[in-house]
Design goal:
Elements (H helix, E strand, L loop, with lengths): L3 H20 L16 H13 L1 E12 L5 H15 L4 E6 H6 L6 H4 L5 H11 L9 E9 L4 H13 L6 E7 L1 H35 L3 H23 L6 H13 L2 H17 L4 H28 L7 H23 L1 H7 L19 H4 L1 H19 L17 H13 L5 E7 L6 H16 L3 E6 H12 L3 H15 L9 E8 L4 H13 L8 E5 L1 H35 L3 H24 L6 H30 L4 H11 L1 H16 L7 H39 L1
Antiparallel strand pairs: 1-3, 1-4, 2-3, 5-7, 5-8, 6-7
Helix pairs in contact: 1-9, 1-14, 7-8, 8-9, 8-10, 8-26, 9-10, 9-11, 9-13, 10-13, 10-26, 11-12, 11-26, 12-13, 12-22, 12-24, 16-23, 16-27, 18-19, 19-20, 21-22, 22-23, 22-24, 23-24, 23-27, 24-25, 24-27, 25-27, 26-27
Keywords: Cell membrane, Membrane, Transmembrane, Transmembrane helix
Subcellular location: Cell membrane
Organism: Methanopyrus kandleri
Length: about 725
């Protein structure tokens, strides 16, 4: 083949450059960075970050001991606070040592002073926010600056917790969304290596079983792992830090689905070389000409299905779609441009394959008995479709994380002893002067209304601090000088320097943050602020509530776009809408099987990421299989009738589709080994989805074709 050496050398050089980039690629796991700016939670988060210079994300340090009020434990916590206050990423620190120092017991003379008792009572109540009633657990709340990077902050805080830790401290760790994000990030790095190695080994095994040649797994993995390196390397060289699921799903899809194009091409090469006895060069050219067209059409079809994810309003989902499309197109390009040169460059002996189709006659059973096949599929689809109708996706990703991550163990300790969660909703008030009496009265009403929602465990914010300031101003100088620094410290992160923005922190009870966020959001939306005053709310629970409102509409939009895409390209390529329409019927039934079985029968709730990506991915992958079978059928139809043409198609091209589907399923199911539940959930839905779609395509697609052909032939 012409330019073979140049193609291979260029391929190796580019792969080396891209592999370097892939190994140095940074990823992002914080899903809040990908939410639409039109979300109310995001608008007010930007206000807090801009005006207060602080983040709405809070770290909670959880300390467990026999008695956290004893001197060794208190001294340990004070050292932690002192070290944290010197950190550049910390905006404010307040914890158990502070509230215990402020206890009325430390100011016995002040308690009896007129006007001071309410202040002392408020300080005593604030103790409950940081120390459990049984004195076994204490917390330190760390407000982070808006530019704080959790990947640097969390390990630094954990190192600080390990320094000089007394033996009486049983447990010391951090929780809160920054800590969970960090643990999730660490789990992702482990998962990426494990999943890549496992899927590569599985793909190699499937290729060897299918072709019984050493060069099949070698060539297959060379093409696909290089394609992975190219896509991730391009992201690196463009300065792009993708969402973690983009990387993991792109790798899995390219190994499990991108290998399909290699299998399709090698299957046709083996047929031309071993069965038909063509010369090696001629067999390669024939395989590329005939299977190459199907590979190109299937690649474009799958890309159209995946590209629909880019229409999502959630940037994390749209990014996944774009990453997968880039991966599939790269796999197609390397299969068509590089694989032929590699095939030509290695020694390949001819292998006798007489009567090879005999072993695959089982795949033609639906062609010989189409009516029973369709009746059986319809019955199963009806039952599982009924179950699928009631399945609703979950937007709270934390529900899928389990309890194994260190930050989640800290969360469990917190909820067990203090009856509070690590989630906060932040009510934000914007005015000319938040210390104006009418604004203060409005904020006090907000506090009362937040408590009435029934989801607030603790409420503290600007009105409390403003009330303390006024009380302290009236105190005698010695007491005032002792209390003023404490009140000023409370003011940080609560009232902006120009006095135009104030916040009220609502720490939630243990529960579903999506439901709790909805209650707080509804409460704020029904408030009637004074003239010139604006009020809003932010925080992860509020974001979950807004995501829940949007997710179904978002899924409908991407599903419709994906269906249109996978219908349009094969229709144009074949100049006939029948193959893609029949294919869509089979694929849709396969999707119902997966959702009905897992969500309806087994009650495994899908995450919104799993549900949305699974539907579009199965539409793209399933139509891939249909296009490849339809392409071969058109070729066989030139010489045979409908039934015989489909029989030859299933016995000759069917094995390639079968092994392609198995590699895809293995790729997705490998995610069950992930350290994080969200990826296990996605892997389960997508893996079972591929198997069910593969079944419907191999059984229902040809059977439907044969039955409809019979109906039309009788009508004539």
């Amino acid at each position: 083949m012409r330019f073979r050496t140049a193609i291979i050398l260029s391929f190796l050089a580019l792969t080396a450059v891209m592999a370097y980039g892939a190994l140095h690629l940074n990823v992002e796991v914080d899903q809040t960075k990908y939410l639409p700016d039109r979300f109310e939670s995001m608008k007010w988060q930007h206000v807090v970050e801009r005006e207060l210079g602080t983040s709405t994300k809070t770290l909670l340090i959880v300390i467990e001991a026999d008695d956290v009020t004893r001197k060794p434990v208190l001294d340990y916590m004070r050292r932690i606070e002192d070290r944290l206050r010197s950190k550049p990423y910390v905006e404010n620190v307040r914890g158990a040592p502070d509230v215990l120092r402020e206890s009325p017991a430390n100011f016995p003379a002040a308690v009896t002073m007129p006007g001071l008792r309410p202040l002392m009572s408020e300080m005593e109540r604030s103790k409950e926010m940081f120390v459990s009633k049984d004195h076994k657990v204490a917390i330190i709340r760390v407000g982070l600056k808006s530019d704080a990077d959790y990947r640097k902050v969390v390990p630094d805080v954990r190192r600080s917790l390990e320094r000089d830790k007394p033996k009486s401290v049983k447990f010391a760790d951090v929780t809160g969304s920054p800590a969970i994000n960090y643990d999730f990030y660490r789990g992702f790095l482990k998962d990426l290596v494990t999943v890549t190695a496992l899927v590569s080994a599985a793909v190699a095994a499937v290729l060897y079983v299918d072709f019984r040649r050493w060069w099949a797994p070698v060539l297959g993995l060379t093409i696909i792992l290089s394609a992975v390196a190219w896509v991730l390397g391009i992201m690196y060289w463009l300065g792009f830090a993708p969402f973690y699921a983009t990387v993991l799903l792109t790798v899995v899809l390219m190994l499990g689905v991108g290998i399909d194009y290699v299998i399709f091409t090698l299957t046709r090469f083996q047929e031309e070389y071993d069965i038909k006895g063509r010369a090696k060069g001629e067999a390669i050219l024939t395989a590329v000409r005939r299977a190459g067209r199907a590979v190109l059409i299937t690649g474009l079809t799958a890309s159209a299905g995946f590209a629909a994810l880019a229409l999502s309003e959630f940037r994390m989902v749209s990014e996944i779609g774009l990453g997968i499309v880039a991966g599939i197109l790269t796999a197609v390009a390397l299969t068509l441009l590089v694989l032929p040169s590699l095939l030509q460059s290695i020694p390949i002996g001819r292998k006798s394959s007489e009567k090879k189709e005999e072993s695959w006659k089982v795949l033609s059973i639906p062609v010989r008995h189409p009516v029973p096949a369709i009746v059986a599929l319809l019955a199963i689809t009806g039952l599982l479709g009924y179950g699928a109708a009631g399945v609703k996706p979950e937007v709270n990703i934390e529900k899928f994380l389990g309890h194994n991550l260190p930050s989640l163990k800290a969360r469990d300790v917190l909820e067990k002893h203090m009856d509070v969660s690590h989630h906060f909703a932040t009510i934000v008030v914007e005015a000319r002067d938040v210390r104006d009496p009418k604004v203060v009265r409005f904020m006090e009403k907000l506090k009362r209304d937040a408590k009435r929602t029934g989801v607030a465990a603790r409420v503290f914010g600007a009105p409390d601090v403003i009330g303390m300031e006024k009380t302290v101003e009236r105190l005698p100088a010695p007491i005032r000088s002792a209390l003023e620094p404490k009140v000023e410290d409370m003011e940080k992160g609560v009232i902006s320097g120009d006095g135009k923005v104030a916040v009220i922190q609502v720490q939630l009870k243990p529960g579903d943050p999506k439901v709790q966020g909805r209650k707080i959001l509804d409460m704020v939306r029904h408030e009637h602020p004074p003239t010139g005053v604006k009020v809003g709310v932010t925080g992860l629970p509020v974001a979950f509530a807004e995501m829940h409102e949007q997710v179904n509409e978002d899924m409908r939009r991407s599903t419709i776009a994906s269906a249109i895409g996978v219908l349009a390209i094969p229709t144009i390529a074949f100049r006939n809408p029948i193959p893609p329409v029949f294919g869509l019927v089979a694929i849709g039934s396969g999707i119902l099987w997966a959702i009905g079985l897992l969500g309806g029968v087994l009650r495994i709730v899908p995450s919104f990421l799993a549900m949305q990506t699974t539907i579009c991915i199965l539409l793209g992958i399933g139509m891939d299989y249909c296009v490849f079978l339809a392409s071969r059928y058109r070729e066989e139809r030139k010489e045979h009738g409908v039934k015989e043409a489909w029989t030859h198609t299933m016995e000759r091209a069917g094995p390639g589709v079968l092994f392609s589907g198995l590699t895809s399923a293995i790729g997705f199911l490998s995610l069950l080994l992930s350290h994080t539940g969200i990826m296990r959930n996605m892997g389960l839905y997508q893996g079972i989805g591929v198997l069910s779609t593969l079944t419907l395509v191999l059984v229902g697609f040809p059977a439907l074709y044969v039955v409809i052909s019979r109906v039309f032939s009788r009508g004539r």
